[in-house]
Batch of 2 targets.
Target 1
Amino acid sequence: MKQFLSFLRKEFHHVFRDRKTLLLLFGMPIIQIVLFGFALTNEIKNSKIVVCDYSKDDITQRITEKIAASKNFEIKQSVLGHKEIEQAFKSGDIKLAVIFPSAFQTDLEAGRRVQVQIIADASDPNTATTLTSYATNILRDFQQDMQPLQHAPMNISTTARMIYNPDLKGATNFVPGVMALVLMLICVLMTSASIVREKENGTMEVLLVSPMNPLLVIISKAIPYLLLSLVNLIIILLLSVYLLGLPVKGNVFLLFGESTLLIITALSLGLLISNSTSSQQTAMMISIMGLLLPTVMFTGFMFPLENMPKPLQIISNLVPSKWYYTIVKNIMIKGLGFSHVWKETLILAGMTVFLLLVSLQKFKIRLS
Amino acid sequence: MPAVEISQLVKTYPVGKNKLTALDKISFDVNEGEIFGLIGPDGAGKTSLFRILTTLLIPDSGSAQVLGLDVVRDFREIRKKVGYMPGKFSLYQDLTVEENLNFFATVFGTTIKENKYLIEEIYVQIEPFKDRRAGKLSGGMKQKLALCCALIHKPSILFLDEPTTGVDTVSRKEFWEMLGRLKKQGITIMVSTPYMDEATLCERIALIQDAKIMSVDTPAQIIQQFPDPLFAIRGDQMGKLLKQLRQNPEVETCNAFGDYHHITLKDNSAGTQTRLIGQLEKENLHIKELKAITPTIEDCFIRLMPHNNQIQRS
């Protein structure tokens, strides 16, 4: 026990005396959250649009105001006719045009079917689709607002309801993704580097010629990073609640429990890497190439897994963060309990046990 | 029972498709309580032997026992009982002197207090820097700290792999004095060095070259076994002198040794020296000094080197 504490103290000294790395460890999640939360969001904000109003009545006025009030749109100008619309598109930065036909209010009040034409610049199809749906949503909202006041029969053709994320906030996807990414990276990178460092500096040589227990060395290496990762997790959650306005709907303790599981998975993966390399640089390279890419690609928060070819979907099952991502989404955003994530938890636990066993098996009790 | 018994030990490393032989069937014993020196140039196989003896490497064939324990089978037991100081400084650079010492004491299940008497003399020298990080110490200090860490658990045998490489002359001298005192505590010490002058500080030495042991004996015996009278010669143009000596039919071997060239003669009868000087003076070489000397370990080493003999024969 005394030996273990001594090892542990040493590891904490290593971690806290390496200020640059420490800064990086805590800086990374903050930067990622801010980046993903604000800069790299797939929400489209402040798209420049034009409005062409042939009717110029009370209702079109109110709809236009509503569009202008939306943070997605910024009305660049009001134009008079279709010709000018085409010119506006050609001149560049206009993404969408909204056209009200003449006698809009009259027709509406008479109970006739009215149509608002939306023209989108589909040279970027994703943006066009998204913007069209934003605009459609605004119109539908407006119709609903009108309904209790006016008893005119409404011609509503579609009903779509966005559940769990009614505002279509990009952050709900990114926060669990960033959590998975940060935890995987820190734990794998740091443990593998820290064990390989002992090999590189020759201290492993001295440690091996001692009665120390390899298991002790490994556990004492993992614990500081486990704690650091948990602190990081708290930072990420605080940022997501207070900065991105994304509450944790489910049980926070369950979330931490599942995260600890992923951290242990990552630590054992880091251990495995460190066993098969002898320089810190190689360990870092393997961690980054073999981990950062699959995590980003196969976790599902950047590229939807459903759209991938079948072989890639199968490969994605091997990425631990994929399962963690599902778990976190279920707990954090949907507010589900353990009964809904036990399958993923079991898979993750199985991976952990497997990795831990293999890496302990491969731990070298001699040089080379 | 010898402290170390080595028999027919072979170690090779794969280098691409070929094998590099680091130890080629070497055998010798180290007696209990002695300071045993492994003397040889870089790449001779010293570190490989140390790593096998400290259970860090497995030999290809042959056997080795340390304190009566087999280095492969009983590695756990050996690891508890030996002290090892690798050639490269291998302590935690980001821990302080005291933290390093404390850590290694705890790893071996002991405390600094318990065995302080062993390291007392060395430790007083580094104690003023005990709060300094090990990475910021000078070379000599690092080496003293490493020795303290290797000694803190009172090992029965100490393996020191090139402890004086890269250390200044004064510190080297101090270090060897410390080893002498540790020997008095009953600790067997096996030390390797590329410095021939340190050989005489050991009780017995093994000369190792190209993975082979050339000789194992006391330094005095090895010197005594030097077959021919040895002379030191000094002139005003040492470079030209060396060239001439090597061409001279009277000269058997000739090697540059600092201010002198050491030579042995084919014919050791009285007139040879005068004849040699005469021949050299004819080549416009002024000889300042020619004297008979006692060989050093280095002379013996060069004499024993197989490739050196080949040069002489051809």
Note: Chain B has two domains: 4-217, 227-294.
Target 2
Amino acid sequence: MIFATVGTQLPFDRLLLAVDTWASMHRDVPVVAQTGRTATTYSHLTCLPQMDQRRYADCVAQARVIVAHAGMGSILTAIEAGKPVILMPRRADLGEHRNDHQRDTAAEMAVLSNVTVVEDSATLCTAISAALTRANDPALAARSNVASARLLDAVRDFIWSEDTRSARSGFGLRPVLRA
Amino acid sequence: MPTFPSRPHRRRRVLAVASGGGHWVQLMRLRPAFDGAEVHYATVDPASRDMVAPAPVHIYPDANKDTRLRLILATLRLTVIVLRVRPDVVISTGAAGGYLAIRIARLIGARTVFIDSIANTRQLSVSARLAQRAADLVLSQWPAVAARTGAQYRGAVL
């Protein structure tokens, strides 16, 4: 199964139309899509506008390949599950987002072994077919699902810091974090 | 494992706040840091309860700066949540709801940290910039962003 996901905030027809085109040429591979709100119908996709966390996790677990917008939820969930993920960043000039931050995110995430970044529909279709051949690729081993040790330490230190403040007395105090 | 303070300390009640999608996934990656504390979660999707059970999960309406009415509803709901939980520490990975929770929690003397999403590779989010005026600590997950904005860098969720 291929799982395509575009988040819940904005539609992303360019990605879903490309996946629909790929699906029309590969009828033997089921494709499930989380589409957000969209007026477009995709005849070769099993579409759901929204999914709760549980359903989303099930789709990720069952998918052989994940195709996603460059949202961090999609990216992190896919790499935690050790799945190949193809990212198509949203573009502001096409009205797909308010700004181009997804292109920056995708560019940074491209260093991860699971991640392939594509900019257009033709490349997306090629990338899906290529990713399907990666099922036994050792580079896809499931990754840790926890933050870096440094960030965990910083949060733990913040929680247990003795720098407690009584109500209404601490305005203007700046953070004192143990290094 | 990192070192805990050697002398016994009183319990800490933590309120961990995140909107849906990537904000929640990033909060989940911080969970080992909450060990030993009493943790309450606040988020927008009731299905998240399963992932952190038996920890209590409080639900608030999702909102952003373009949804005025929902922003008001989220503020009211988060006020109730903060007053009920009475946290010592509030931790948020965004977005708007996390900033609101931090603003409210400061009024009851909680210490607060806002961790901006790793998606913000070039600049801080609007919520993080607002949080800089309210939180004790604002973290960016990118050193260059931290250096430019006055946020701190302490590693990333990846």
Note: Chain A has six helices and six strands.
